[in-house]
């Protein structure tokens, strides 16, 4: 990062700036789109450790998207990403022991403007190293996507796990705002597509940290009311019968994932 960079997107600049860096990088005061791009370009098994100093409101907004948050959690578990809150920043900076670069967006392009002034670099690094030590850790409660896939496959089987992954791949965002396809809605639709029990999918979701059984139950009721899923009772040896989840529209069981998403979005928007 000792030379200026000019690219077409924040992701391109970050990829280029971090390509040959193998030390800790402080990323200071990034906007929401920069945080999203960082999560997308970082690899869990190689590259620098990113120490992200971000306004808490920005982190909350970004991490409300399950796709971003679950991938970020993978990076956190791998030691590639650390998150702390910071509210006093004016510029977006990339800071290492040897370089400081400011991210600038203008004219439809993105630049990383670097300095080679040793005194400024040393002072900036020391300032943000101290800031990091004083900053509060951000509690990312979303489970890592690798654990989600692994445990879903163990709990509900390969078909459900593959469908879950396919839905996430087809979506741009999966936000828990109650209006779109959040992670609980996706889990229930996938379970219904594969005729799984509500008990099994809600227990899995609660155990992995996606949501409580009560949240799964409330969301199931909402999807029933919107004509997306149905249920049938399954007797068990002891206790109340359990509910098998079914798609209310039989033709969606074998439909493409994109058609399932479209039908769900249409029903939820119309509700």
The CATH C-level name of the largest domain is: Alpha Beta
- Find the CATH superfamily of the largest domain: Endonuclease Chain A
Give the mean pLDDT.
91
Count every beta strand, where a strand is a DSSP E run of 2 or more residues.
Answer: 9
Q: What can you tell me about this protein's structure?
A:
The protein is an alpha+beta fold and 271 residues long. The protein folds into two domains: 5-134, Endonuclease, Chain A, CATH 3.30.870; 145-270, Arc Repressor Mutant, subunit A (Orthogonal Bundle). It has eleven helices and nine strands. The protein has helices spanning 10-18, 32-41, 56-63, 66-77, 118-134, 145-156, 158-170, 183-193, 198-208, 213-225, 257-270; strands spanning 5-7, 25-28, 50-54, 81-85, 93-95, 100-106, 109-115, 229-234, 242-247. It has a seven-stranded mixed beta sheet with strand order 1-7-6-5-2-3-4, sandwiched between helices. Strands 8-9 form a two-stranded antiparallel ribbon. Helix 6 (145-156) runs antiparallel to helix 9 and helix 7 (158-170) packs across helix 8. The N and C termini lie far apart (50 Å). The mean pLDDT is 91.
Summarize the structure.
The chain has 271 residues and is of the alpha+beta class.
Secondary-structure blueprint of this entry?
Layout: E1 5-7, H1 10-18, E2 25-28, H2 32-41, E3 50-54, H3 56-63, H4 66-77, E4 81-85, E5 93-95, E6 100-106, E7 109-115, H5 118-134, H6 145-156, H7 158-170, H8 183-193, H9 198-208, H10 213-225, E8 229-234, E9 242-247, H11 257-270
